[in-house]
## 1
Amino acid sequence: MRLRAAIASVAAVGLAIAAYLTIVHYTHSSPICTSGGCEKVQRSSYASLAGVPVALLGLLAYLGVIGSAAWRGVAAAFAGCVIALVGVAFSAYLLWAQLARIHAVCQWCLASDVVMAVLAVLCTVRLLREPG
């Protein structure tokens, strides 16, 4: 139970970050930024996938992880683990894009990357411990 609560809590932090960036996207506003690169990253072609903002995809992923944490069982643990691992892979791709293509770094994106990596670890531990 504690592990599922930890997963949900960490995912809620990611959800807040993704919600903020989704709002920034749809209101066409500038994100609060101390790294100096947030706006450049948010306005880049990498900020959307097939016309869908990646912040919205992150928001949906975090909701999915929260949903998986609400349920017991191997299927829920597996679903959360898959979402988190795909999220880490996509985060790695976006980090590469920031460093190699955009030449700017968004602090919000980095925070989301860290949250997703922590979730991947927690969800993997949960999957390995979940009674089958």
## 2
Amino acid sequence: MEEIQEYIPITKAKNMLLETIRRIEIDDETVAITKNGVPVAVMLSMEKFNGLLETLDVLSDEAAISSLRKSIREGIADNWVSYEEVFGE
């Protein structure tokens, strides 16, 4: 899992908002905003945010999770299916 690259006090974040947003957009950083030294909010790119939403959507789908768990178990058991078996080529 990706870590937060920077922790910024809320006052500094307010004063440097545009610069911080540009950095998040260009460098795809994740920045935590702190209040009295305690993280209270996170700023991240829309791409990361949408990725998180998509991940949550998949994780909330019981059928998808069941299928993933089955695939992991089969992979651990070295029970692989060939490309030809899957796609009939």
